[in-house]
């Protein structure tokens, strides 16, 4: 997502761009500060190789002079993690607070924190069929008892961020996207793209007909920029575009790309929650059609040889 956001930002000719070369002998943020004039905005995951531990002061120096910071970085596991407290919760929560403390110290005007629908929707007591909005929070205890560690990490990090904002007066806006697809710009495949790739490659015999909430990475980048630029933006914003059941999604995929190995059966299962992005749309956000997301995603996977 960072690369997409960078592309949107650079198209808007607004702020700095860095290629995040982690193999460089000096950390990317150092090169960034040496070589690039900081014109306004900084992305925490290009400027901080690791969020926790000793990066607090370096983040502070990286952030000095910035009007805004986009905090995108957070661990996103693609499989189960042996020690979730250390591998997920701590980096997400401490990392976010480190960035926020540095922003407060550097008098940054606004910080955009990328949270997730995972911090909104996991609540077993939510009335079935009722649409969720920004007042909804995932139930932390339920996340813990059901081992939904990623949901817990995002819920803890976002709630701590908003608490920090209330306590200190720092202007923090959070954006909560759901499942993000769209063209890959980076060489590694992130977890959410894997969801689509597996649907094309694995030839599932049967799949649960779940409801998916999908949003294009380019529309998420647009939402982050709106949340940054619009003076009236405040609090949380759910960022979701398309509500679609697996069966309908596969019908769409089949009509666009008939030759993949699609599931033969669907089972009916749980009642899924639905969320609304009305608040974000009132800020001026719109999103592209799902077909465009599917085609651009799949074409980018083909180009990268991922579907061979
Ligand atoms: N993709 C989705 O469907 C989705 C949906 C909702 C929200 N989000 C949120 O969007 C953000 C970006 O996710 P993504 O999908 O683009 O996944 P991603 O490609 O895995 O990006 C996660 C980024 O966070 C960085 N990171 C992880 N742990 C870190 C640490 N301890 N210190 C510094 N950087 C760290 C990673 O850097 P390294 O690669 O160097 O580890 C990577 O650049 C995350 O906050 C995620 O929770 C994603």
UniProtKB/TrEMBL annotation:
Gene3D superfamilies: NAD(P)-binding Rossmann-like Domain (3.40.50.720). Signal peptide: none annotated. Pfam families: Epimerase. Keywords: NADP, Oxidoreductase. InterPro entries: Epimerase_deHydtase, NAD(P)-bd_dom_sf, NAD(P)_dehydrat-like. The keyword NADP applies. One of its GO terms (molecular function) is oxidoreductase activity, acting on the CH-OH group of donors, NAD or NADP as acceptor. Residues 59-233 form the NAD-dependent epimerase/dehydratase domain. The keyword NADP applies. Belongs to the NAD(P)-dependent epimerase/dehydratase family. Dihydroflavonol-4-reductase subfamily. This is NAD-dependent epimerase/dehydratase domain-containing protein. It comes from Citrus clementina (Clementine).
């Amino acid at each position: 997502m960072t690369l997409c956001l960078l592309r949107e930002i650079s198209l808007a000719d607004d702020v700095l761009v860095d290629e995040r070369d982690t193999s460089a002998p000096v950390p990317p943020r150092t090169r960034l500060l040496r070589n690039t004039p900081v014109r306004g905005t900084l992305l925490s995951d290009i400027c901080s190789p690791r969020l926790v531990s000793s990066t607090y002061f370096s983040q502070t120096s990286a952030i000095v002079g910035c009007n805004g910071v986009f905090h995108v970085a957070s661990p996103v596991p693609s499989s189960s993690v042996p020690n979730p407290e250390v591998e997920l919760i701590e980096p997400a929560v401490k990392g976010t607070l480190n960035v926020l403390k540095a922003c407060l110290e550097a008098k940054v005007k606004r910080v955009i924190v990328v949270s997730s629908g995972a911090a909104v929707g996991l609540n077993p007591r939510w009335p079935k069929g009722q649409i969720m909005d920004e007042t909804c929070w995932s139930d932390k205890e339920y996340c813990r008892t059901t081992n939904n560690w990623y949901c817990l990490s995002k819920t803890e990090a976002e709630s701590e961020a908003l608490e920090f904002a209330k306590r200190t007066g720092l202007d923090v806006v959070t954006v909560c996207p759901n499942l993000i697809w769209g063209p890959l710009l980076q060489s590694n495949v992130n977890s959410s793209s894997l969801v689509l790739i597996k649907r094309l490659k694995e030839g599932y015999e049967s799949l649960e007909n779940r409801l998916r909430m999908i949003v294009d990475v380019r529309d998420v980048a647009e939402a982050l920029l709106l949340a940054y630029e619009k003076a009236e933006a405040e609090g949380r914003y759910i960022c979701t575009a398309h509500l679609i059941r697996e069966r309908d999604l596969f019908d769409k995929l089949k009509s666009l790309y008939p030759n993949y190995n699609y599931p033969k059966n669907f089972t009916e299962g749980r009642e899924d929650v639905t969320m609304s992005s009305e608040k974000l749309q009132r800020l001026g956000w719109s999103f592209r059609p799902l077909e465009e997301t599917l085609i651009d995603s799949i074409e980018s996977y083909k180009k990268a040889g991922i579907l061979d």
